[in-house]
């Protein structure tokens, strides 16, 4: 069976090696083990980015189809450019997989109408809905959101719909009346799982945030919580790992200064997927993810496979897969809740290590090998 994959991300070639974001690169690499041919439709970049943190060696059964010319569409109140997909000629495939909501989802769907379509949703529809604010940028975002929802409903009439969380499966059914199947996603191989059993936390306690450093990831609430914990005379350090825009970085640095916590907060920036990143999890005592909304974050699996106790919000697809037997849940947008959870971890570290051990074993059922195998089985049953 030959599958053609579209995802809205860029990739970069250097000789016979392809560099792309790890969350999609690891998945494509594993797909190549299960299918006769894997094609990838995306935008080829001619500049190497630190976000391209996975090296995909050129394989005989992986083909790339770049979209690098653009057409302008005029909607009257706004103009936008989309890649020109008419140039792509890849008719030798059986299955079209559209992974995630993408601006090109409907165009790709129509272009390859001769293929059997599969749509893999990897994020919450409800939580990604923008709030209405009466300014041009927000109204355009709101329009695009509903346009893609409408396109998804149209696509669902002919496509097999999959979702990477049971919560999203229920969301699709209750909100859009779309039936779907649960197929998890991950970037971790079974060989990445490293037992890292500790007897107690470090002094100072090392707290980790890892992911996109944006306001809706709850990073500001985490900084306020760090201040509250220090005021209780707990010794802690916070390491922040992830991409951050310069303007927002300056805002956070000012906030850290105002809170007088500069000496305990370290903004490390982006760390590529792999052993260097995993070692950061292993050296950390608590992983904190105070997001406002999520699909199911890969960082939870990364913390799990390195035995790192987890504090996270009970949002999006998270509670559809894991529960309070595995992690400590906190309230959204609540520094006090974060403070209480971290203090509870420090004071009751043996219980938290037991939770981490349970999640370590549970997460082995969600490796990249298991995820792609389930995807293949769903496709074969179409």
Work out the radius of gyration: 21 Å
Low-confidence stretches: none
Total strand count, please? 17
**Mean pLDDT score:** 91
SS summary, helix count:
11
- Percent helix, as a range, is 25-40%
Query: Which outline best applies?
Result: globular
The secondary structure category is alpha/beta
Largest beta-sheet characterization: 9 strands, mixed
- Tell me the fraction of residues in β-strands, as a range: 15-25%
What would your notes on this structure say?
This protein has 382 residues and is an alpha/beta fold. The protein is 35% helix and 24% strand. The protein has 11 helices and 17 strands. Strands 1, 2, 3, 4, 5, 8, 9, 10 and 11 form a 9-stranded mixed beta sheet that branches. The chain has a 6-stranded parallel beta sheet with strand order 14-13-12-15-16-17, sandwiched between helices. Strands 6-7 form a two-stranded antiparallel sheet. Strand 8, helix 2 and strand 9 form a beta-alpha-beta unit. The radius of gyration is 21 Å and the shape is globular. The model has no long low-confidence stretch (mean pLDDT 91).
């Amino acid at each position: 069976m030959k599958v053609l994959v579209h995802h809205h991300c860029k990739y970069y070639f250097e000789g016979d090696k392809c560099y792309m974001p790890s969350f999609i690169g690891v998945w494509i690499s594993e797909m190549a083990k299960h299918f006769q041919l894997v094609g990838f439709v995306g935008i080829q970049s001619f500049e190497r980015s630190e976000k391209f943190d996975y090296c995909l060696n050129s394989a005989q059964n992986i083909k790339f189809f770049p979209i690098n010319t653009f057409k302008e569409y005029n909607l009257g109140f706004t103009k936008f450019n989309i890649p020109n997909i008419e140039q792509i000629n890849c008719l030798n495939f059986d299955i079209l997989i559209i992974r995630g909501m993408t601006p090109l989802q409907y165009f790709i769907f129509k272009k390859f109408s001769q293929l059997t379509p599969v749509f893999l949703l990897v994020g919450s529809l409800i939580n990604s809905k923008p709030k209405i604010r009466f300014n041009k940028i927000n109204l355009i975002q709101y329009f695009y959101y509903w346009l893609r929802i409408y396109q998804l409903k149209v696509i669902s009439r002919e496509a097999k719909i999959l979702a990477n969380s049971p919560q999203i499966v229920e969301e699709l059914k209750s909100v859009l009346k779309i039936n779907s199947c649960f197929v998890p996603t991950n970037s971790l191989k079974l060989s990445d799982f490293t037992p890292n059993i500790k007897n107690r936390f470090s002094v100072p306690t090392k707290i980790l945030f890892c992911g996109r450093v944006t306001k809706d990831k709850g990073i500001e609430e985490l900084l306020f919580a760090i201040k509250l914990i220090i005021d209780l005379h707990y010794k802690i350090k916070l390491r922040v790992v992830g991409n951050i825009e310069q303007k927002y970085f300056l805002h956070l640095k000012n906030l850290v200064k105002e809170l007088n916590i500069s000496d305990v907060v370290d903004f490390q920036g982006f760390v590529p997927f792999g052993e260097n990143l995993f070692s950061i999890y292993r050296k950390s005592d608590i992983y904190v993810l105070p997001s406002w909304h999520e699909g199911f974050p890969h960082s939870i699996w990364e913390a799990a496979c390195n035995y790192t106790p987890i504090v996270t919000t009970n949002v999006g697809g998270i509670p559809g897969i894991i529960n309070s037997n595995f992690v400590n849940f906190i309230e959204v947008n609540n520094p006090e809740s974060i403070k209480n959870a971290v203090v509870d971890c420090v004071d009751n570290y043996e219980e938290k290590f037991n939770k981490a051990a349970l999640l370590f074993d549970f997460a082995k059922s969600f490796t990249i090998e298991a995820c792609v195998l389930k995807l293949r089985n769903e496709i074969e049953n179409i």
